[in-house]
Design goal:
This protein is an all-alpha fold and about 500 residues long. About 70% of the residues lie in helices and about 0% in strands. Helix 5 packs parallel to helix 16. This is Amino acid/polyamine/organocation transporter, APC superfamily.
């Protein structure tokens, strides 16, 4: 039996009313790139997570970050080919819209919102621990992690509410500082010629394919989380057809090169033969030890402060991304219309920000009241569905690109994008399988817990698809709007 035809509903695009519109022409390519690189939190990823990759993969770890960067660069080519066709403001949600059907796309919208929320809220645990360590290191005082997490949530809410241009400038300063301290460490190591001499064994085939290298792809791919959110700022970008692709390519290129270079320099700091053992014995202090040895104790103190601001920058960037996904879903009528209104002065999606802040307080407060460990439980357990969900959405988007252009018979005109979509589907699909098989590395939990965490991704995706079918029958006009393809002439032409 054939499925019933999709309802024919004509949607007329128009400029959104003033109390709904976001701030126009507020962001250039550099500002958007700052936003998405800050979301990845380079200093936090390097000092807090890279030692785990080094402890498993040893001297070959730098190639994992470079390989992940190449994979995401290919995905970015496919991802950006859809910008001309969709004009959507919901990134994954919009880009899956024209390829895989409304049921899958609403599932993608639900999953994207959930994934970004889990990524952001979980990091409050890591940020609180880093804040604790910095206060103890510098002043010898100990403050409960829950108090520091709550303070962080308030700061993120306040800055996010002030508008996207204010947030972008703030993130630009913090990103410059955290990148600067990493470069100081790398340059100091190279000037001193490392532990013995500078060498490049990390990039030889035997080291790059050594046992454990497949497993650390989980850490390498997780280090790029958030780069794809460039598309969420389309409404607020200047000349978005040029700005969004530039920001995306800049962000991926910067992270791939920077991560590989910094991790390689730390290998030189301890020596290729000793780095795995050193990282295993001192996971939390590896970068601080290198900084104290090659630059000075004062620099390690500075880095302890900048790790906190790095996490803060990441939280603000993800907060902005979450709010725009929520705003997009509300604009389409899937979420309550209360959430699609913007601040009367700052033009930020402030109501969505309020709801996201309340959710963060509830989750963090629940873990605190339960006496949970902020790192091993709040961070690792809450973050994991986000990492898995985002990579899963990237696979779906890659497939959507190929399906869309094949169906539209535009393969010849968009051959580069189609080929990139096919390659990204294979590569990211393989990474998704590797990640799920090695999920214990991200969670440090038992099989039952890991099954539940992976199951969350599937449940949310299916819930979105079921909701779409309900809307198809009960609210066909809302169903026809699914995809974030509003007030954009290009989107109307392709709908």
């Amino acid at each position: 039996m054939s499925s019933p035809a999709e309802p024919t509903i004509v949607i007329h695009d128009s400029a959104p009313p003033p109390d709904v519109a976001l701030k126009r022409n507020a962001l250039g390519a550099p500002a958007i790139a700052f936003m998405v690189v800050a979301a990845a939190a380079p200093l936090t990823v390097m000092a807090g997570v890279a030692p785990l990759a080094l402890s498993i993969g040893g001297a070959g770890a730098p190639t994992a970050y470079l390989g992940a960067g190449v994979a995401f660069a290919i995905f970015a080519v496919a991802f950006m080919t859809m910008t001309r066709a969709t004009g959507g403001k919901g990134a994954f949600y919009s880009y899956i819209t024209l390829g895989l059907g409304r049921s899958v796309r609403l599932g993608a919208g639900f999953l994207a919102t959930t994934a970004y929320n889990t990524l952001q809220i979980g990091v409050y645990g890591l940020m609180a621990v880093q804040f604790q360590d910095a206060l103890h290191r510098l002043f010898g005082v100990t403050v409960p992690w829950s108090v520091l997490a709550l303070l962080s949530i308030i700061v993120v809410w306040f800055i996010g509410r002030r508008g996207i241009d204010v947030g972008a400038r703030f993130l630009g300063v913090l990103l410059t500082l955290e990148t600067g301290v990493l470069l100081v460490l790398a340059i100091a190591v190279l000037v001193d010629r490392g532990a013995s001499r500078i060498e490049f064994s990390s990039f030889t085939p035997s080291v790059a394919t050594a046992p454990g290298m497949g497993a650390i792809l989980a850490f390498a791919f997780a280090a790029f989380m958030g780069f794809e959110s460039t598309a969420l700022y389309r409404s607020e970008a200047r000349d978005p057809d040029r700005t969004i692709p530039r920001a995306t390519y800049w962000a991926v290129s910067f992270m791939a090169v920077a991560y590989c270079f910094i991790v390689w320099s730390v290998v030189q700091a301890f020596g290729a033969a000793q780095i795995q053992q050193q990282a295993t014995s001192d996971v939390s202090g590896l970068f601080f030890s290198a900084m104290s040895t090659y630059v000075g104790t004062w620099a390690a103190d500075v880095m302890s402060v900048l790790i906190v601001t790095s996490a803060l920058a990441s939280q603000l960037a993800f907060h902005n991304a979450i709010n725009r996904y929520t705003y997009s879903l509300a604009r389409d009528g899937v979420l309550p219309s209360f959430l699609d209104h913007t601040h009367p002065v700052h033009k930020s999606p402030s109501r969505a920000g309020d709801v996201q802040t309340v959710l963060a307080v509830i989750v963090v407060g629940g873990f605190a009241l339960a006496g949970a460990d902020p790192y091993r439980q709040l961070l690792l357990l809450v973050n994991t569905p986000g990492v898995v969900g985002i990579i899963g959405l990237q696979v779906l988007t890659s497939v959507a690109v190929v399906v869309y252009f094949v169906r539209k018979r535009r393969v010849g005109r968009e051959l580069v994008g189609v080929v990139a979509g096919i390659v990204a589907t294979v590569v990211l699909g393989g990474a998704f399988v590797v990640l799920t098989k090695n999920i214990v590395l991200l969670t440090n939990a038992g099989p039952a817990t890991n099954t539940v965490l992976l199951g969350v991704v599937g449940v949310v995706l299916v819930a979105g698809m079921v909701t779409a079918q309900y809307l198809r029958v009960r609210r066909p006009r809302t169903y026809a709007q699914i995809g974030g393809l509003y007030d954009d002439p290009a989107a109307a032409a392709e709908r």
